[in-house]
Amino acid sequence: xxxxxxxxxxxxxxxxxxxxxxxxxxxxxxxxxxxxxxxxxxxxxxxxxxxxxxxxxxxxxxxxxxxxxxxxxxxxxxxxxxxxxxxxxxxxxxxxxxxxxxxxxxxxxxxxxxxxxxxxxxxxxxxxxxxxxxxxxxxxxxxxxxxxxxxxxxxxxxxxxxxxxxxxxxxxxxxxxxxxxxxxxxxxxxxxxxxxxxxxxxxxxxxxxxxxxxxxxxxxxxxxxxxxxxxxxxxxxxxxxxxxxxxxxxxxxxxxxxxxxxxxxxxxxxxxxxxxxxxxxxxxxxxxxxxxxxxxxxxxxxxxxxxxxxxxxxxxxxxxxxxxxxxxxxxxxxxxxxxxxxxxxxxxxxxxxxxxxxxxxxxxxxxxxxxxxxxxxxxxxxxxxxxxxxxxxxxxxxxxxxxxxxxxxxxxxxxxxxxxxxxxxxxxxxxxxxxxxxxxxxxxxxxxxxxxxxxxxxxxxxxxxxxxxxxxxxxxxxxxxxxxxxxxxxxxxxxxxxxxxxxxxxxxxxxxxxxxxxxxxxxxxxxxxxxxxxxxxxxxxxxxxxxxxxxxxxxxxxxxxxxxxx
Length: 566
Hints:
Blueprint: E1 3-4, H1 5-16, E2 20-23, H2 30-35, E3 43-46, H3 50-64, E4 68-72, H4 76-91, E5 95-101, H5 117-121, E6 127-130, H6 137-149, E7 156-161, H7 162-166, E8 168-169, H8 188-199, E9 204-208, H9 210-214, H10 218-228, E10 232-234, E11 252-255, H11 260-267, E12 272-276, E13 298-303, E14 317-320, H12 323-337, H13 340-371, H14 379-389, E15 395-399, H15 401-404, H16 407-410, E16 420-422, H17 430-441, E17 447-452, H18 453-456, H19 462-468, E18 474-479, H20 484-492, H21 496-499, H22 515-521, E19 525-529, H23 532-543, E20 549-554
Parallel strand pairs: 2-3, 2-4, 4-5, 5-7, 6-7, 9-10, 9-12, 10-11, 12-13, 13-14, 15-16, 15-17, 17-18, 18-20, 19-20
Antiparallel strand pairs: 1-8
Helix pairs in contact: 1-6, 3-4, 3-17, 8-12, 10-12, 14-23
EC number: 4.1.1.7
InterPro entries: DHS-like_NAD/FAD-binding_dom (IPR029035), THDP-binding (IPR029061), Thiamin_PyroP_enz_cen_dom (IPR012000), Thiamin_PyroP_enz_TPP-bd_dom (IPR012001), TPP_enz (IPR045229), TPP_enzyme_TPP-bd (IPR011766)
Domain Thiamine pyrophosphate enzyme central: 191-330
C-alpha cells in the first residue's frame, strides 16, 4: 500500500496513543496540517508562538507521563522553541520535537529558512537527526519515541524535509512503536551496602527530587523515611521541579536553601544523606564556600541515570536502578539490618521531627498574621490566602519563585505530590504554557498557574490557546511590576548600585502592563485584585469555572533580602 511520509508519521503516532500535536506551522509543515483536516485521530493544538507551544507539550508530558509531540517551523521556529527545549532537557521530559526542512532539491542553493537544525537541537536533546529518505522515516519515528521514553527520559528531534513528508512509497514499514520494559532492578549488593550505611546513621536525612514523583515512588519513599526517622528535604528553588513527598507529612523538612552557604548550614547536623531522584546539585550562582555539601556527610545516592551518581560529590554508595523498585527493595533490607535499638532511635527521631516541623509551621502562620494588614499585600499574605482555598486535587504550576517561596508547601496546603510543577531549567515563559498542557492531561483536575508578571510576558500568547480551546486554567499573576529575582541576585553579587537599591532595566513600569486588558484581547476573562478576601473569593470561583480565567494580584514592590527556603 502506498503511503506518504506524513501519513506514516500520523499513523504510527496515532496507533501509539498520541492524542495531541502541539504546534505553530509554517510552509514546510503544511503537509501535517493538511492531513489533520480529515484525520481526526490527532488533535492539533495551535499556539501563536513556539515558547507556549513547547511549554504546553512539556506540561502535558510531565502530567500524563506519556510522549508529547511538537511540530514547529523550520529554523526560525526551532530557534524560538530553544528556551523551552532547554527546560525540557533539564527536566528529562519525553518530547518528540519535529520541524519541516526545505525540499532536498533546494538544499544546495542554501534556500531561505534552510539550515542545520540538527546541530542546533543536538545539545539539548537525547537524539537529533534529519531524515533524508522516506523509507527511513518509520524507523526514525520508532527510534525517536523509544529514546525519548527510555530512562533517563528526555526530548528528541526529527528534521523532516518537505519532499520527504509528501513522497509516497510502497516500502514503508509501519510496524507499531513498541517499548521495552526499561525498569532496571538495582544490584542487590549495592542495595545491601546502602541499607547498612543508612541503618547505622544517627542523624539521617533524605534529599528527594522530581524523579520520585515521575516514577510513582512516593509511597515507597514515605515508608523508607518513616523507617529511618529522617526528614525529607525537597530540591531547592533552582531546580524545584515536582514534589517528591507530601507537604503535610510530619517528616517533610521543606526545601533545601537556594545558595551554597545555607545548604551547608542546613545539612551540617546530619551524618548520612539518602539522595534519590535528584541531581546533586545544580546550583544557580557561585557562592563561597563552593562546596555546598558538607565534607563529613556520607552520601547514598539512588538513580536510574548513572551520570548523576558521583557527578559532583563522592559517594559512599551509588545505586543504579529504577527509583520505585530500588526504594521498595531497600525497605525490607532496612527492616532486617536495623537493630531494635536503631529502630527505637528512628521512632524517637520521628517524634522529635514531628514536633519541630509543627512548630515551624505555627511560626509561619504567625508571620502570616503579622503581615495580613499590610497593603499592598505581601507575597506571604498572597500565598497564605491561596493556600486557604486550594482543592485537594489541585495541580499547581509555579513560575514566581520570589513570591511563592514554597509557602503553600510549608503550610502543608498541597495534599498531593503529583500536582506540583516548578522550574528546573529556568528559561522564562514556561509556566503559562505548561499549565495548559497539564490541564489537557488532567481535564478533571483544577489547574492553577502561579506566575510572575515578568515571566508570563515571555509566553503570554498562550492565553489565546487557552481561550480558543476553552482550557480552564486559572492564571494567577503575582504582580510587583519588576524582575524581582534579578534585584535579589544583584544584591547577592554585591553590585554597588544594587546595594543602594538602584537598578537599570529591572522595573516593568512607565508604562505598566495592563494585564486585564491584555488578557481580554486574547479572549480570557480577567480581573485585578488587591485585597486578600477579594482574592479568596475570586480564586475559589475561578478554580471551579469551566472557562480559563486570569487574576492580576497586586503585591508589594519591596525587594526582600536573600531568599532562603524552609
